[in-house]
Amino acid sequence: MLVKVPAAALYGIHAYPVSVEVNLSPGIGYAIVGLPDSAVKESRERVETAIRNSGFSFPRGKIIINLSPADLRKEGTAYDLPIAIGILAASGQIQRSTWDNVLVMGELSLDGTLMPIRGALPIAIAARKQGIPQIILPPANSGEAGIVKDIEVYAPRTLREVVAFLEGKLPLERIFVDARRLFQQAQVDTDVDMSEVKGQMQVKRALEIAAAGGHNILMVGPPGAGKTMLARRLPTILPQLTLEEALETTRIHSVAGLLREHTGLITRRPFRTPHHTISDIALVGGGTYPVPGEISLAHNGVLFLDELPEFKRQVLEVLRQPLEEGRITIARARFRVEYPARFMLVAAMNPCPCGYYTHPTRACTCTPGAIQRYSARISGPLLDRIDLHISVTPVETQALSESSPQESSQVIRARVQKAREIQQLRFGDIPNIYTNAQMPPKMVEEFCRLDDKGKRLLESAMNRLQLSARAYDRILKVARTIADLEGEENIHADHLAEAITYRTLDRATWGF
Fold it and tell me: How far is residue 45 from each of residues 39, 87, 111, 387, measured CA to CA in Å?
C-alpha cells in the first residue's frame, strides 16, 4: 500500500513542500531515498521504537520511503513524525481517507513524545502557500507557527495523540497567536540603561547618531574606558522592531533552532557578541548543512565585535560584502543559499597591544612598529565601511563619583525615533531602504546635497585626510543623520564638520 504524507524541507530561511511517500509491500527491507542526510537515515530506529512504545505494531514487509522531490536535500530529525504516520497508514493502523489537508513534522523520542524541530515558522508559511489548511507540530514549536494566519496549527504531545487526532477521536485546541497584539504588548525595557554611564558625552553622541541612521561605529580606547559598557547599551536607544522586522528576525532564529520553547515572536532587536576566536563560517553561516551565521542572527539588530584586531584577518574580511549589501550569499559545489544580514556593526579595540597608547595618565610600553602592526590587522577596505570612528578615554575619578543625573535611554531613544520617522518619510516608497546608512550613491546625491561652503569644507577634508570615495559617501550619510536629529531639511556646514570628525581613524591618519 502506498501513502503520501505532506511535509517540508528547509533551504536557507525558506521551506519548500516535500511529500513523504511510504510504500509497504511483501518482502524484507527498509530504505529511505530522496537525498536524506544522516539524521534522516537514522530515523528508522527512532521511528520503530516510538511506534512500538506507543502501543502500535511495526509492520513486517518491505518498506520503501521516498522523500519527494528527490533532488532537494532533506536534513534533520523533523521527518520522524511524517515517516511514522506514513508507516502506520500504509499498514492500516490509521483510518483516514486523505492526507492532502494536513502537514506533519516533528522529531520522535523513543517513547513517542514529540520533540522540537528547527524552522517551524517557515514550514508553517510554506504550508499556507501550498494551500494546506492544517499543520501538526511539536508543542515547543507551536508558538512560532501559530503567528501564521489562515492555517490551523495543532500541537499534540505524543505519537498516540497525533493518531487519535487524525482519526477524529481526540479534539485538540487550535494554536493561534495574535502577532500584532503580542508585538504591541512587547516591553522594550532592559536591565541596562544609558543613564548608568558616567561622562562619555562625546561617545554617547556618536552612538546616538549611529542609532538614528543605522551607521556602523568603531570605538578605540584603553582597557576600562567603558567601550563594552557603552556597546551593550546601544540596543536600548534603538527604535523598537517593526512587525515586519520582528517576523523576519523570528524566521532566521527559527531556522537556526535558537527560539526558546513556546516563543511566538522576537520583539527585541538582536545583540550578538561572538568571541574573537570565531571562524569565518560561524560568522557568515554555511557549513556542511547550511545554517545562518552570527551576522544573520544579528539581522535588524547589532553585531558587537569586541577586541576587533584579535579576530582573524580572514574572518574580518568576510564582513565586507554583507556590510555593503545587507545579505550574504553562500555558494558551494552542491548548494547556494542566501541569508539576510542587515545589521549595525559595533566594534571596539585597544589603540595598541598593551592598551595604553592613548591613556591620559598611564604610559604605553609598545614600540611604534608594534602599534602599527597591531592597527594594520584591520584593513583599509573594512575601515572604510565603518561610518563613525570615536576615541574613548577613561572617565576621571571625580566624574565617576558625581551623582548628577544622566540622560536615560528612553530620552535618547525618543530623539532617535524622531530621526527614524523622518527617514521613513524620505524612503517610504523605496524598497529595502530604511535608514540613511543604506542609501546607495545615487540617493546620496539626491538627499545629501551641499551648499558651496559645505562643498569646500568636504573637499578640504578629503585632501587633508586622504579619504576614499567610499568614505566621502559615508561622511555625507552621517551628516544627513545629524541634520535629521536636529530636524533640519538641509545639511549645514556644522553638520558636515561633525561628521568629518568621526573619520579620524582612517588609514592615512591612524594616529602615528
Answer: 11, 13, 12, 55
For the chain, first and last CA: distance in Å?
78
CATH of domain 2-177: 3.30.230.10
**Rounded-to-integer distance, Cα 222 and Cα 206, Å:** 18
What are the domain boundaries of the chain?
2-177, 194-509
Fold of 194-509: Rossmann fold (3.40.50)
Mark out the alpha helices in 406-468 (DSSP H runs): 409-426, 441-447, 452-465
Q: Pick from 408, 420, 414: which is nearest to 481 by CA?
A: 420
Cell of 171: 479534539
Lowest mean pLDDT of 111-115, 160-164, 167-171, 467-471, name the range.
Answer: 467-471
Q: Which residue's C-alpha cell is 507540530?
A: 137
pTM over 0.85: yes
Strand, coil or helix: 5: strand
Strands 2-11 and 14-25: antiparallel
Tens-place pLDDT, residues 409-446: 999 999 999 999 999 999 988 888 889 999 988 999 99
Per-residue model confidence as pLDDT tens digits over 456-508: 999 998 888 788 788 889 999 999 999 999 999 999 999 999 999 998 775 44
String of DSSP letters for 85-122: HHHHHHTT-S--S--TTEEE--EE-TTSBEE--S-HHH
429 to each of 437, 441, 446, how far by Cα in Å?
A: 17, 17, 15
